[in-house]
Specification:
- The complex is a heterodimer of chains A (171) and B (159).
- By secondary structure, chain A is of the alpha+beta class.
- Chain A folds into two domains: 6-58, Arc Repressor Mutant, subunit A, CATH 1.10.10; 78-155, Alpha-Beta Plaits, CATH 3.30.70.
- Chain A contains five helices and five strands; from the N terminus they run αααββαββαβ.
- Chain A has helices at residues 15-24, 34-42, 46-58, 91-99, 130-144; strands at residues 62-69, 78-85, 104-109, 121-127, 150-162.
- The longest helix of chain A is centred in the C-terminal third of the chain and has 15 residues, at 130-144.
- Chain B contains five helices and six strands, in the order αααββαββαββ.
- Chain B has a four-stranded antiparallel beta sheet with strand order 3-4-2-5.
- In chain B, a hairpin with an 8-residue loop joins strand 3 and strand 4 (113-119).
- In chain B, helix 2 crosses helix 3 (40-52).
- Chain B is elongated, with a radius of gyration of 20 Å.
- Chain B starts with 8 loop residues before the first helix and ends in an 8-residue tail after the last strand.
- The chains are: A alpha+beta (171), B alpha+beta (159).
């Protein structure tokens, strides 16, 4: 998936969409007719809830509807944020190549913060052990070759907080 | 961090096949259950159990905040070890902080606390950063996304 084009980046939500986002950001109701249940809470019809969810999906405001597994619980107990210093003029080429590797779940260009932080390419790598993550990081290092001037891998040692993303509302 | 828990074949099928494409129709659990070869009641009970066991962090729509006009920002701090727990509590007390991780590297990298701030605008997120800096007396370094090359968090089940 590529970054949204600027023109579509700010799809605005109307009041009912917003209420729907706030009502579902904690999750869908686990009842046989969840959209009916949401409709009752929002004071509209189940058809309208379904039509709006479909529209949010088509507009890319909802990426997908489904389960979000905890990576640790499904066996990915090591996660490494690999960071790379590559020439800015080659960032598109390298970002595309690194992002295409099947073990990379996120790949972004971010700003350097000199002198502390020379890295401009971030790629998240998941594995069952630090050794597996480091082996995958070595594959990225090979791919970048001599264009890469420095790199590092930051392992998460503790989750200090993890809540779903929330907008507005009081829940 | 939670230990990996044991899952049976149906749990694994739910986790792998239901990461997207949950139906939008009057009885979506019945439709999804049929696709998995289980009953609606079994699917609902398993989702409930997987959520309670925190195998799933959530079940529902996954939003792309940027397309709602919102902002998601990665930020990092170097927290001195002597102030660690105090600063963890302080940063976590901000509702705008969605995730916060302690990270370390073999090279003694400059930042040991990495968190994601959510806000409704760039200005709101910048204001949160200033409030965290004022409250902690420590600098907060922002790492905005300049370009997104790839995002897909779906991974095969390993347990």
């Amino acid at each position: 998936m590529k970054a949204p084009a600027a023109a579509e980046a700010n799809s605005s939500l109307d009041a009912v969409d917003r209420a729907l986002v706030i009502a579902t950001q904690g999750g869908l109701p686990l009842v046989p007719q969840p959209y009916e249940r949401l409709a009752e809470a929002l004071g509209c019809s189940a058809e309208e809830v379904m039509r709006r969810l479909q529209s949010l999906l088509e507009r890319g405001i909802i990426r997908r509807i489904g389960v979000v597994p905890n990576h640790y619980a499904i066996g990915y107990t090591a996660n490494g944020m690999s960071v790379w210093d590559v020439p800015d003029e080659q960032i598109d080429e390298f970002g595309g190549k690194v992002g295409a590797l099947d073990f990379v779940t996120h790949c972004y260009q971010r700003p350097r913060r000199l002198p502390d932080w020379p890295y401009n390419l971030f790629a998240m790598v998941h594995g069952s052990s630090r050794g597996e993550v480091l082996a995958k990081v070595a594959i990225i290092a090979d791919l970048l070759g001599s264009a890469c001037r420095a790199h590092d891998v930051l392992f998460s040692t503790r989750i200090l907080k993890k809540t779903g993303l929330r907008i507005g509302g009081s829940d | 961090m939670p230990e990996a828990v044991s899952l049976d074949a149906v749990d694994r099928a739910i986790i792998e096949q239901l990461q997207g494409g949950f139906p939008i129709c009057p009885q979506p659990y019945a439709v999804a259950a049929a696709g998995l070869g289980v009953s609606q009641e079994d699917l609902l009970a398993r989702l409930q159990r997987l959520l309670e066991a925190r195998v799933l962090t959530r079940f529902g729509p996954l939003f792309q905040v940027e397309r709602m006009g919102g902002v998601f920002l990665l930020a990092a701090m170097h927290v001195p070890p002597t102030r660690w727990s105090e600063v963890v509590d302080l940063v976590n007390s901000f509702p705008e902080v969605a995730h916060n991780y302690q990270r370390e590297s073999a090279q003694q990298c400059a930042f040991n606390m990495w968190f994601v701030l959510a806000g409704e605008s760039a200005a709101a997120v910048a204001a949160t950063i200033r409030r965290i800096e004022e409250a902690s007396g420590l600098p907060v370094c922002a790492f905005p996304k300049l370009q997104e090359f790839f995002v897909d968090m779906r991974l095969p089940v390993r347990v």
